[in-house]
Amino acid sequence: MKKILLPIAALLCACSSAPTAPASTAASEAAATDSIAAAPAEEPASEVDAASGATSVPNEPTFNGILVLPPQSRATVTLTMGGSIRSTTLLPGAYVKQGTVLATLENPEFIALQQSYLDSHAQYEFLRTEFLRQQTLAREEASSQKHFQQSKAEYLSMRSRMDAAAAQLALLGVDTTRLLAGGIIPYLDIKAPISGYAADVKMNIGRHFDVGEPLCEIVNKSDMMLRLTAYEKDLANLRAGDRVEFRVNGIEGETFHGVITMVGQQVNNENRSIDVYVRIEGQNPQFRPGMYAMARIARK
């Protein structure tokens, strides 16, 4: 009888202890759920804008650009009369003021043009005096109309020749008043058309240049602009008057500002791009035409 009761007691003990395992499992799952619920929600990662370093909204558009000069700030020095360089001391990067002599040019045709003007001027004075005399005689009927008309034709023809020579000399920068007072100038002075820095200098002593061939360029950096490259999808976010923040390659740690002045009206057929021009606020002496920049629209 005792042998039968012992197995029954062991079975009852096993049955009473078995349900404890699921209870402990449920408790651990509930604790894990509470810990997950208690953990703070992870915030979406913010992005740092490449132009200003400030935190920005993800997918905010940025634009690549290049520093450029407006047309009135770049001058190409060319010749309206060919010739050979007699003297020059101009070096690339040198600053010159408007009217500074960049080089002197020698050409026999320049001397001949001055002689033509001086001869025409002398003949003009004589023919003008004769024309006025014939005009007075014709009015008093002391001379025939034929002589008066001939005198008038010669006078007007010579005045036309003199004016044409004066106009050619004016294109070369020669003052005819100085020419009349001082005589023929042997060499032609090549002067800077604007103030700025010399670039792409091609002159040296003895080199011959033809008409229209560039000698050098003068660039004025006082009013540089930023030209951005945008695309069709960006047009809705670009308006004249929008403020722009940008950084320039080679100038680390400094953010510059500007205002959009013009959005291009023509799309490039090759890459579907549009030019956007920005007026820079506060020029930097380190700016150079052609420097790359990255910009973004400064939203309020």
Structure report:
By secondary structure, the chain is an alpha+beta fold. It folds into two domains: 48-69 and 224-297, Beta Barrel (Elongation Factor Tu (Ef-tu), domain 3); 73-219, Beta Barrel (OB fold (Dihydrolipoamide Acetyltransferase, E2P)). It is built from five helices and 16 strands. The strands form four sheets. A six-stranded antiparallel beta barrel has the order 3-12-15-14-13-16. A four-stranded antiparallel β-sheet has the order 4-11-9-6, with no helix packed on it. β1 (47-48) and β2 (55-56) form a beta hairpin. α3 (108-139) runs antiparallel to α4.
Q: Brief overview, please?
A:
The chain has about 300 residues and is α+β, with helices and mostly antiparallel strands. The chain contains 5 helices and 16 strands. The chain is elongated.
* N-to-C series of helices and strands: HHEEEEEEEHHHEEEEEEEEE
Per CATH, the class of the largest domain reads Mainly Beta
Distance between the termini: 94 Å
By CATH's scheme, which homologous superfamily of the largest domain applies?
A: RNA polymerase II/Efflux pump adaptor protein, barrel-sandwich hybrid domain
Sheet with the most strands?
6 strands, antiparallel, barrel
Radius of gyration: 43 Å
| Average of pLDDT | 82
Overall SS class: alpha+beta
Characteristics of this structure?
four-stranded antiparallel β-sheet, disordered N terminus, Elongation Factor Tu (Ef-tu), domain 3, alpha+beta, six-stranded antiparallel β-barrel, 2 domains, 300 residues, OB fold (Dihydrolipoamide Acetyltransferase, E2P)
